[in-house]
Amino acid sequence: MDREEKLDKRIAFTVSGKVQGVNFRRFTQKKARALGVVGWVRNTDDGNVKGEAQGSASQIEGLRAGLNEGPPRANVTGYEDKELDLKEKGVAEERFEVVR
């Protein structure tokens, strides 16, 4: 399976609750990399965590499950995502990164 076929789904996600100061971004990065998902994650000024992720449908479902749970010290109270048009985004990232 070539890279384009494998990374056929991209989402933008926002996670709310106690998600800052609990290693949520690092948790997300580790989970995404373990699943083979590429993209990015960052904290927002309003206390949430947001990002974009691209992978196969099953990889994205695995990431969603992890984001809904979060690391041990987190308390996720909300999760939203929306599918993005791959053509608008262009070429996928090479790996999953924490951005500031």
TrEMBL record:
<dbReference type="InterPro" id="IPR001792">
    <property type="entry name" value="Acylphosphatase-like_dom"/>
</dbReference>
<dbReference type="InterPro" id="IPR036046">
    <property type="entry name" value="Acylphosphatase-like_dom_sf"/>
</dbReference>
<feature type="domain" description="Acylphosphatase-like">
    <location>
        <begin position="10"/>
        <end position="100"/>
    </location>
</feature>
<dbReference type="InterPro" id="IPR017968">
    <property type="entry name" value="Acylphosphatase_CS"/>
</dbReference>
<dbReference type="Pfam" id="PF00708">
    <property type="entry name" value="Acylphosphatase"/>
</dbReference>
<dbReference type="InterPro" id="IPR020456">
    <property type="entry name" value="Acylphosphatase"/>
</dbReference>
<feature type="active site">
    <location>
        <position position="43"/>
    </location>
</feature>
<protein>
    <recommendedName>
        <fullName>Acylphosphatase</fullName>
        <ecNumber>3.6.1.7</ecNumber>
    </recommendedName>
</protein>
<dbReference type="GO" id="GO:0003998">
    <property type="term" value="F:acylphosphatase activity"/>
</dbReference>
<feature type="active site">
    <location>
        <position position="25"/>
    </location>
</feature>
<comment type="similarity">
    <text>Belongs to the acylphosphatase family.</text>
</comment>
<keyword id="KW-0378">Hydrolase</keyword>
